[in-house]
Each structure stands twice: as structure tokens, then as C-alpha cells.
Amino acid sequence: DGGITQSPKYLFRKEGQNVTLSCEQNLNHDAMYWYRQDPGQGLRLIYYSQIVNDFQKGDIAEGYSVSREKKESFPLTVTSAQKNPTAFYLCASSVVSSTDTQYFGPGTRLTVL
Amino acid sequence: AQTVTQSQPEMSVQEAETVTLSCTYDTSESDYYLFWYKQPPSRQMILVIRQEAYKQQNATENRFSVNFQKAAKSFSLKISDSQLGDAAMYFCAYRSAAVASGTYKYIFGTGTRLKVLA
User: Fold this and answer.
1) CB-based contact, A90 to chain B, within 8 Å
2) Nearest Cα to A74, choosing from A59, A56, A100?
3) Residue B32: is its pLDDT beyond 80?
4) Are the beta carbons of B103 and A45 separated by less than 8 Å?
5) CA pair distance B110, B90, nearest whole angstrom
6) Torsion angles phi and psi, residue B117, rounded to 5
7) A49-101 pLDDT, tens digit each
């Protein structure tokens, strides 16, 4: 089955720790995205990548980092610099074209203890 | 900058009835795409329907249809014969058709929670 997987589903972090959220896709999509979702707000873009070894900051990149070493994988690290990291994180992917549609993974719920 | 507004935080509909969710957007562009995504309790975002701005015909997908009013910058979603499984958060999203910074950014509204009453 083609799709996007995210792991873990739930993640707990102590203050001051870095954590990494996994996102993998087997859709052969070039573009991948990370969004943050908070209650009462829409999805906000953290980082995106259109090609391996290249990525750009989204609207709320501070306190986050990413890498894109493989086309299939786009892990997100939530660093200790992120002041309010408790949120739901969604990964998405798409082809790169004017007609693309983004498809989403199941998400990771991060809670800071 | 483009914005997307969903003014109904919550809506309710009786099972088998019809409900319309509202979405307005602001843009100076002429070519763009609009989407409705559904987020059920599992929280996975699922594409419901997509509309190309250059098409006058409203998109339909089974029980889901849109009313796209380009001049009014309105993009409402109509769900006919509502089912219990339709209960979810619904997000409206905008994407430019023009390349900006090398990719196509999506802008999401804040969502409408739909409750379906048995």
C-alpha cells in the first residue's frame, strides 16, 4: 500500500530534550511538508522540502530542524529552543507540479511533561 | 498575503439531512486551487474535494459538492444525505497555482467541527 507513515503516534518529552518525529512516504513524491496543529487553529507550516538535501523554512520554523537525506524520509527535530512544543504534528507529501495535492500522514501527538 | 476564513467553528446536522460549511478567502491572484479536507477523530487529514479556480463548474464527489463563487471569493462545501461517519473537523485550504519560492504553499482555515445527530 502506498502512503505516508509517521511515528511514533504519541511522544512525550521532558523539558530541555530534543526529540525527532519520523515521516516516511512511498508515494514517490518529491515534496514533503511538516505542519503543526494547535486547538482552534489551522495547520501552520514548519518546514518543507522539494528535493533531497534541500529544504526551506515555513511560517513557524523557530525551534525546529529537519533533514532530507532520502527522498522517502523527512524527519523533524523539535529542539529545546521551541518554547511551546506540545501540539499535533502532521507530515504531508506531494508531487511538484502546478496541479499537486498534498496527502497527509496520521500525525504525531507531542506532549511536553 | 492570502488568507482563508472559516467563520463557523461548529455546525450540527441531522442524519440524512444536508449541511453547508462556509469558507471565504482573500487573494489577489487569478489562478489557484481550493480544497476541503476532513479530519475525523483519528486526526488523519483526508482530501474531500478540490476545485481549480479556472473552472467555472463546481466540483462534486459523491455526496460532497462545492459552491465556488470566484468573484465573491467564497468556497462552501455541501454535504448531502449526511452520515454519522461525516462527523469530523473540516478544513478549507488555498494554494496558489503560481510558483513562489519554489513550491506551492497551502494556507488553511481554522476549521469547522461538524456534528451529525442520529
Assistant:
1) yes
2) A56
3) yes
4) no
5) 9
6) -95, 130
7) 989 999 999 989 999 999 999 999 999 999 988 889 999 999 999 987 767 78
φ, ψ of residue B85 to 5 degrees: the values are: -70, -5
**3-class DSSP string for chain B:** CCEEECCCCEEEEECCCCEEECCEEECCCCCEEEEEEEECCCCCCEEEEEEECCCCCCCEECCEEEEEECCCCEEEEEECCCCHHHCEEEEEEEEECCCECCECCEEECCCEEEEEEC
The shortest CB-CB distance from B43 to any of A48, A99, A107 is to: A107
Question: Cβ neighbours of residue B1 under 8 Å, at least 6 residues apart?
Answer: none
Q: Is the dihedral of CA B55, B99, B93, A20 positive or negative?
A: positive
Closest CA to B18 of B88, B110, B114: B114
Upstream peptide bond of A8 is cis (omega within 30 degrees of 0): yes
Under 8 Å CB pairs connecting chains A and B tally to 54
Residue B97 to residue A105, Cβ atoms within 8 A: no
The one-letter code for the residue type at A65 is S
| Cα gap A8→A22, rounded to integer Å | 7
